[in-house]
Protein backbone atom coordinates (compact mmCIF):
# COMPACT_ATOMS: atom_id res chain seq x y z
CA UNK A 1 0.00 0.00 0.00
CA UNK A 2 2.91 2.34 0.63
CA UNK A 3 4.07 2.16 -2.99
CA UNK A 4 0.51 2.80 -4.22
CA UNK A 5 0.25 5.81 -1.93
CA UNK A 6 3.60 7.13 -3.22
CA UNK A 7 2.35 6.81 -6.80
CA UNK A 8 -0.87 8.63 -5.93
CA UNK A 9 1.04 11.41 -4.16
CA UNK A 10 3.30 11.82 -7.17
CA UNK A 11 0.35 11.89 -9.58
CA UNK A 12 -1.47 14.50 -7.51
CA UNK A 13 1.58 16.70 -6.83
CA UNK A 14 3.32 16.50 -10.21
CA UNK A 15 0.34 16.35 -12.54
CA UNK A 16 0.68 15.34 -16.16
CA UNK A 17 4.28 14.71 -17.30
CA UNK A 18 4.37 17.17 -20.21
CA UNK A 19 2.10 19.98 -19.08
CA UNK A 20 2.21 19.52 -15.29
CA UNK A 21 -1.50 20.27 -15.22
CA UNK A 22 -3.43 18.32 -12.62
CA UNK A 23 -4.95 15.05 -13.71
CA UNK A 24 -8.71 15.24 -14.22
CA UNK A 25 -9.19 11.60 -13.23
CA UNK A 26 -6.89 9.20 -11.44
CA UNK A 27 -8.02 5.58 -11.50
CA UNK A 28 -6.82 2.81 -9.22
CA UNK A 29 -7.28 -0.61 -10.83
CA UNK A 30 -7.09 -3.75 -8.70
CA UNK A 31 -8.14 -7.39 -8.89
CA UNK A 32 -10.16 -8.98 -6.10
CA UNK A 33 -8.08 -12.15 -6.22
CA UNK A 34 -4.85 -12.24 -8.16
CA UNK A 35 -5.10 -15.40 -10.24
CA UNK A 36 -1.41 -16.33 -10.40
CA UNK A 37 -0.81 -16.17 -6.62
CA UNK A 38 -4.29 -16.45 -5.17
CA UNK A 39 -3.67 -13.44 -2.95
CA UNK A 40 -6.62 -11.25 -1.99
CA UNK A 41 -6.41 -7.47 -2.31
CA UNK A 42 -6.59 -5.50 0.94
CA UNK A 43 -9.63 -3.63 -0.30
CA UNK A 44 -10.30 -1.51 2.82
CA UNK A 45 -6.84 0.06 2.47
CA UNK A 46 -7.35 0.68 -1.24
CA UNK A 47 -10.75 2.30 -0.59
CA UNK A 48 -9.15 4.52 2.08
CA UNK A 49 -6.50 5.67 -0.43
CA UNK A 50 -9.18 6.21 -3.06
CA UNK A 51 -11.07 8.52 -0.73
CA UNK A 52 -7.94 10.29 0.50
CA UNK A 53 -6.73 11.16 -3.02
CA UNK A 54 -10.19 11.49 -4.62
CA UNK A 55 -9.40 8.81 -7.17
CA UNK A 56 -11.69 6.37 -8.95
CA UNK A 57 -11.56 2.67 -8.10
CA UNK A 58 -11.93 -0.10 -10.71
CA UNK A 59 -12.28 -3.58 -9.20
CA UNK A 60 -11.86 -6.72 -11.30
CA UNK A 61 -13.90 -9.45 -9.60
CA UNK A 62 -13.34 -12.09 -12.30
CA UNK A 63 -11.82 -14.61 -9.88
CA UNK A 64 -13.58 -13.57 -6.67
CA UNK A 65 -17.24 -13.29 -7.65
CA UNK A 66 -19.05 -16.48 -6.74
CA UNK A 67 -16.09 -17.77 -4.72
CA UNK A 68 -15.42 -15.26 -1.93
CA UNK A 69 -17.65 -13.84 0.76
CA UNK A 70 -20.45 -15.45 2.78
CA UNK A 71 -22.85 -15.44 -0.19
CA UNK A 72 -20.26 -15.30 -3.00
CA UNK A 73 -20.51 -11.59 -3.78
CA UNK A 74 -16.75 -11.10 -3.95
CA UNK A 75 -14.19 -9.18 -1.97
CA UNK A 76 -16.51 -6.26 -1.21
CA UNK A 77 -18.73 -8.64 0.73
CA UNK A 78 -15.72 -10.43 2.25
CA UNK A 79 -14.49 -7.19 3.83
CA UNK A 80 -18.00 -5.88 4.58
CA UNK A 81 -17.56 -2.81 2.39
CA UNK A 82 -20.29 -0.75 0.80
CA UNK A 83 -20.36 -1.55 -2.95
CA UNK A 84 -20.99 2.15 -3.64
CA UNK A 85 -17.37 2.80 -2.57
CA UNK A 86 -16.29 1.03 -5.77
CA UNK A 87 -16.70 3.19 -8.87
CA UNK A 88 -16.49 0.42 -11.47
CA UNK A 89 -16.86 -3.34 -10.86
CA UNK A 90 -16.16 -5.89 -13.53
CA UNK A 91 -16.36 -9.65 -13.64
CA UNK A 92 -16.79 -12.64 -15.88
CA UNK A 93 -19.29 -15.45 -15.70
CA UNK A 94 -16.83 -17.97 -17.19
CA UNK A 95 -14.77 -18.58 -14.05
CA UNK A 96 -17.14 -19.16 -11.11
CA UNK A 97 -20.45 -19.58 -12.88
CA UNK A 98 -19.39 -21.77 -15.81
CA UNK A 99 -21.30 -19.63 -18.30
CA UNK A 100 -20.53 -17.16 -21.05
CA UNK A 101 -20.55 -13.42 -20.56
CA UNK A 102 -19.62 -10.88 -17.97
CA UNK A 103 -20.57 -7.56 -16.48
CA UNK A 104 -19.29 -4.06 -15.94
CA UNK A 105 -21.17 -2.07 -13.32
CA UNK A 106 -20.77 1.47 -12.09
CA UNK A 107 -22.55 4.34 -10.42
CA UNK A 108 -23.26 6.34 -13.55
CA UNK A 109 -25.41 5.24 -16.45
CA UNK A 110 -23.71 5.73 -19.78
CA UNK A 111 -24.90 4.83 -23.21
CA UNK A 112 -22.93 2.27 -25.19
CA UNK A 113 -24.19 3.70 -28.46
CA UNK A 114 -21.10 5.83 -29.24
CA UNK A 115 -18.85 2.81 -28.64
CA UNK A 116 -20.98 0.57 -30.83
CA UNK A 117 -21.09 3.08 -33.67
CA UNK A 118 -17.29 3.34 -33.83
CA UNK A 119 -16.49 -0.27 -33.06
CA UNK A 120 -14.43 -2.25 -35.59
CA UNK A 121 -16.65 -5.23 -34.79
CA UNK A 122 -19.60 -3.24 -36.16
CA UNK A 123 -17.93 -3.33 -39.57
CA UNK A 124 -17.23 -7.06 -39.36
CA UNK A 125 -20.60 -8.00 -37.84
CA UNK A 126 -23.13 -5.32 -38.82
CA UNK A 127 -26.49 -5.24 -37.09
CA UNK A 128 -29.46 -6.52 -39.06
CA UNK A 129 -31.53 -3.74 -40.63
CA UNK A 130 -34.55 -4.44 -38.42
CA UNK A 131 -32.65 -3.65 -35.19
Automatic annotation (TrEMBL):
Extract one GO cellular component term from the record: serine palmitoyltransferase complex
Cofactor(s) the protein needs: pyridoxal 5'-phosphate
Residues in Aminotransferase class I/classII large domain copies:
1-108
Q: Which InterPro entries match?
A: Aminotrans_II_pyridoxalP_BS, Aminotransferase_I/II_large, AON_synthase_class-II, PyrdxlP-dep_Trfase, PyrdxlP-dep_Trfase_major
Q: Which GO molecular function, any one, fits this protein according to its record?
A: pyridoxal phosphate binding
Key word Transport present: no
What PROSITE patterns is this protein classified in? AA_TRANSFER_CLASS_2
Q: Which UniProt keywords apply?
A: Acyltransferase, Pyridoxal phosphate, Transferase
User: Which BP terms in the Gene Ontology apply to this protein?
Assistant: ceramide biosynthetic process; sphingosine biosynthetic process
Q: Which family does it belong to?
A: Belongs to the class-II pyridoxal-phosphate-dependent aminotransferase family.
PANTHER family reported in the protein's UniProt record: CLASS II AMINOTRANSFERASE/8-AMINO-7-OXONONANOATE SYNTHASE, SERINE PALMITOYLTRANSFERASE 3
This protein's name: Aminotransferase class I/classII large domain-containing protein
The organism encoding this protein is Hucho hucho (huchen)
